[in-house]
Amino acid sequence: MKKILVLFLLILCLSVAFYFYVDTNDPEISWGVGDNESINAPLKIKIADDLGLKEVCYTLSGGSCVDKKQCFVDIPDRSFDLVIEPEKCAQNAEPFKIEVAVDVVDSSLIANKVHDKIELTFDDQAPNLATLDGTRSLKRGGAGVVLYEVGEHPAETGIVLDDLIFRAFAFDQNKYLSFYVHPFYVDSDDFKPRVFARDKAGNTRKIRPGSRTASYTYPSVVIELTDDFLNVVQEKMMEDSSKTPLEAFVQINDIVRKENYRVIEAQCQNTVTQKLWEGAFLRNLGTTKANFAEYRTYMYRSAVVSRQVHTGIDIAGINNTEILAANHGKVVFTGEIGIYGNVVILDHGYGIHSLYGHLNQIDVQEGDMVKKGAPIAVSGETGLAFGDHLHFEIRINGIPVNPIEWFDDVWVKTNIDRFLPKD
Fold this sequence. Notes:
Immunoglobulin-like; alpha+beta; ten-stranded antiparallel sheet; about 425 residues; Glucose Permease (Domain IIA); elongated; 31 strands; 3 domains; 5 helices
């Protein structure tokens, strides 16, 4: 009986020892980057094991380093952050290939061993960047273009302004052009666009586009809301709502409007990488009823209930006026967009779009190519419109700009067309 008990205890002890000190799982190596990627900082490798780590060794080769080896033993934790500093292998400012090989042994009684390696490029030099030509001056609410050259093929490039990025279009080897905007809501002192190029390692260089800007004052209006008007708005736009007419108007004018802007901005990312337009943009006939960047304060019973800015111009002619394409382009959207009602959006290339809203009838389909002056729709009062008119916008990279500039043939030639590469 004693022998059986001793044997049982021995088996129990061995089982406990096996459970606590024998690990059948290999240590894990997490590189944090993929093979053949570029880096510009120390490489941080995370190594972990269920029981613990006995030894971690790495070998670094590349640049001035030839099989540089280092080991770490008696690691107290179950994980270990291995930091490799390839910058210490640099021979000059040029990028260089490195290979990192890692060998790991865990603390199991029956040791598990892992060997893995990775090849990378170490590059801590930002791309060379230089402007070639472009718009000399613009004003708040206006637009410009810059042509520039990058010393290498960038992972990302364009113009950055705060949280806005204006995309770039390649027109020759390592040469790009980018249209950008001085948004109407940005003060001149705060308008600091930068041409940027970022390489695969994440190195970024920024330079000024070489233009200057000026302040410009846009009109402000106060709109007194009446109960009759609010009732009409609710019946037209939010008939089934349990909100009061005033609550419905504020939701439409503030929340729905912002949602509509996001839809339009998304549609304006659909563009061809070439110039489709020719010369100045055509202005549809009619009287201007509202201006671009018109700052509107909405009052109800002497209290301010909403503030918004008009992002285009309103043109009113006779009812059901034939609407013409402002320039050559491709139809990228037809349909209903909230406060805009029925809408057509044309792409004119290089991220430039024109928008036609409040339409009663649409006569084109998405994908159609249209010529300047071709009929595309009929005016109406769909959406948040009261009275037949056309709401017209020009947007660059989804940002609304002053259409008056684009109606001016001299302005288009002087500030835009003369800088663009010839076909």
